[in-house]
Amino acid sequence: MNKKKIFNDPLYGFVTISSELIFDIIQHPFFQRLRRIKQLGVSEYVYPGALHTRFQHAIGAMHLMGKAMDGLRGKNIDITDEEYESGLIAVLLHDIGHGPFSHALEYSLFQDVQHESLSFLLMKHLNKEFNGVLDTALKIFQNTYQKKFLHQLVSSQLDVDRMDYLQRDSFFTGVSEGTVGVERILEMLNVVDDNIVVEEKGIYSIENLLSSRRLMYWQVYLHKTSLGAERMLINLINRAKELAESGNKVPASNELSLFLTNSYNLSDFQNNSNLLQAFGAMDDHDIGGAIKLWANDKDKVLSELSNMLLNRRLLKINLVNSPSKKTDIENIREKIAREFKVLRSESRYFMTHGEVSNKAYVSGGQTINILTKKGEVVDIAKAADLPNIKAISKIVKKYYLGYPKNIVL
Fold first, then answer.
1. Domains identified in the chain, total number
2. What value does the mean pLDDT of the chain take?
């Protein structure tokens, strides 16, 4: 059977699967699950076209990884065939640990278990199934492989992951500010002292990438309506979990029920392969199906929140420059309790507050380095004529307060 298949991608055209091993990994149920996880979680409430999936993104990132390594090989950077295939696999599987609705439920279904940790555990599981052929890919993913630049292509401030998601999210949301000249960036990549650098001719393309990322954060990833919908979903899952852990019957799929009735941490996943496989079978459909069932639940909080999400009656979000006052939060909770006829202790599920930050580029540590025409390697933030980069390097923090639109302050 010919396993060198071709995908027709809306961004890149034809994407070729370069090896039988990669095709077999794509065919695995763990990876096919990514077809059922939306890349942007609940952003479709704002941008109706934002229905693309983690599967599409993973294939796209793998394609860009191949382009990057081809370009480096053309500049006499040594990348063996095994390293080339392992690099493709590492980026293909970099998001395999995402749960339903991507980032939205990362800290509600589990106890501070990050998706990167679950990606690593699922990759180890796959490596066992595939008789150890993913050893090098795991080392590249973990940054323990001898050629550090391969990991930097997978995960850094200039990795193929963000190059793909910026383009892809821009395309499907219709937010043109996210458009990035990825082809030119890939052509300008080089390696100095085992680190990825950008040749000086590509400096303005990097500036455009960072500006696009900053704008996409405010217009898409941190859009206040998306933020409101995401916090509502988190509150809903927290309520379902509270009820389930208290012994109430909360209708859900077998996998979702497992995580609602138990609180698991990273060591539980590390020591229980059945738990990991249960996670590897759960997707957006588990949550979506449960919400439709919960809309008619006898618990008022669960049913009301479910109906609000189903019918897009989302929280109103105010973004401000200072934290919410405790008196304002208490005032809102009292009004919610009266309006929704719920206990004051339950009113917290109908509101949200916290902070968000936008950091397009963090200077220092893992930087984006420019290779000057004189052969010097310089942090892009220190490049002479780029004041815009210096501005982008500043972390902008905002605070949010969300509550139902029918609550009048």
1. 1
2. 93
